Amino acid sequence: MMATPKPGPVQIKSRNPIPLSSSQETQVRELYYKRVRGYCADEIRDFASCALNRTISATWACRQQRLAMNSCMIAHASQQEQDAAREEWFATQDERRQQREAKEARRKEQEKFHREWWGMPPLPGDEEGSGATEGKR
Predict the structure, then answer these.
(1) Can you count the helices (H) and strands (E) in the chain?
(2) Residues ≥6 apart with Cβ < 8 Å to 116
């Protein structure tokens, strides 16, 4: 008798195969919440205007608005929206990297200016060399 091959682990085709770190997952979750809130903006606005200047009475006075807001958010809070948020996060990954690099370049330029202004020696590994101390010889 011929042995039948053992079936391996079941491969689930995921639309998002790359695991993310905790902070990256938080960013994806924030995108997801933003998308869902965007779909339900009118219902959220109606509930907020009803609940304005109310405390405990908002529970029963704004019941219809709260139920409408919750049902809208539940209707749009789906796995497809989570996948779309993750895809959006991956699509904007290069843009976020460029923003971080530009921010770091601005910070270094400001630090260089600060050191030159106050006559401080440059940091070790500074490409400019000793620009601030050359004029003080």
Answers:
(1) 7, 0
(2) 131, 132
